[in-house]
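Weekly modeling sync, notes
Attendees: S.R. (lead), two postdocs, one rotation student

Agenda item 3: backlog of single-chain predictions. S.R. asked that every request posted to the team notebook include the full sequence so nobody has to chase files. The rotation student volunteered to paste the first one in as an example of the format we agreed on. Action items at the bottom.

Example entry:
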Amino acid sequence: MIVDRMQSLSVSELDLIHQTTMTILEKNGLAFSDEETLDLFKKNGFKVSGGQVYFTEKDVLAALSTTPDKLTIKARNPEKSVTAGRDEFIFVPFYGPPFVVEADGRQRLGVMSDYEKAVKLVQTSRAADMGGFKYVEPSDLPTETAYLDMLLANITLSDKAALGSTDNPQAAEDTLEIMELVHGRDCMADNGVVVGLISPFSPLAFAADMSGSIISYARRRQPLIILNMVMAGISGPIQLPGLMAMANAEILGGVVLSQLAGPGTPVVYGTTSCPTNLKTGEPLTANPETLWISQAIMQLARYYNLPCRTGGSLTDSLLPDAQALAEGAMSLMNAVRGGANFIMHSLGMMGSFIGISFEKWIMDEELCGWMRAMVQKRPIVPETLSLESILAVGSNGSFLPLRETAKLCRKAAYENMIFNKTAAVPQKNEGAEDLAARAKSALDRRMAEYVKPDIDPGLEKDLRRLISELKEKRGRN
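Predicted structure, as returned to the notebook:
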């Protein structure tokens, strides 16, 4: 009997991918370009030739033995701390675009006020479990210090946990210094308070900024997400099983480095790898093959007993339209049902990572709500089978007057935020309001009703002073 038609990789298939990965790591290795990283590998007995580092299966298994299978990220407001791993998952917003996509599809460069708008949406969202970073690149700020303004916004405009900067090792160190001021050194010694996002440089290499950031975060035992974006036929094999073996080699190499720098550092295993439109060279971030890759990566994460990160509401559409909603819903459902733990790009992603749409963000919140309700566990026990009610009503009766109905009616069905759930004829026959218009109204209302969360005035003063000092230092470099 078919339970799920998505391909479930057998143990022998997973073993074959693993063994192929080990051969890649042993025979080709991974390229690193910074001396600190190469020295760390040498000190731990790895074979290093030039900038190439070679890994044995023993090295990989040793690293995997010290990585936890779940992680908790402590928020400034402890009640908003989050956990990801095993059967627990969180939704995280979009990351890294240069543009804002308006409702009509026009693109414009993002500015800092757009970034702040995204942070306020995180704070007021019942879907976003934590904040991200680089919701949009602020074009109105100096690139060498913009990350400091983004960190300040994350901390002061929201009291949820968030990602930090990994632009380069210095930005990583600044992030950790700032988070130490907010949370305290003792707290950071025992807790993850900020998450670093690391991307290998496919094929089979790590840029100095990424490997250096791994070392910075891992030395403080702060969680890392190690993911790649291998494009089939360009930066990786065109056949998806081969792509998976190569992507796996890159991710595991990052895991090994993290454990050399800081044994026990929580690591989330993941990818945004996808097929390529070889007519244009563009990524197909939301395509059937992307969903297959996502399913495979989730199964490999379980194989290695690591929390998994994969894509959320992905789309290649350039408008917050039916295509965007359809692709986003399929991608989100694939991630949630497949067992992902850290679901990034869950809110606002547009056009193959080109821009953020605030209207789509609101639509995606509805999708995330659906997904949580869909996988909610409903125990099958005598109390939930309502036998007494069924027999009391009998044939041709109604359950509406029952006490059971009155008791449970407010929580019996998911409460939609912007999806229309009434077939009533609009008053004055003016026509129904479409989803985009309802999303825009909800967005405007959220911004109007936003209230900045409490923060200790002394802490905020010290935080602004530290960031001002760091901006002055980095601006001179």
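Discussion: group reviewed the output briefly. The first strand starts at residue 30 and ends at 32.
Action items: rotation student to repeat for the remaining queue; S.R. to check formatting next week.
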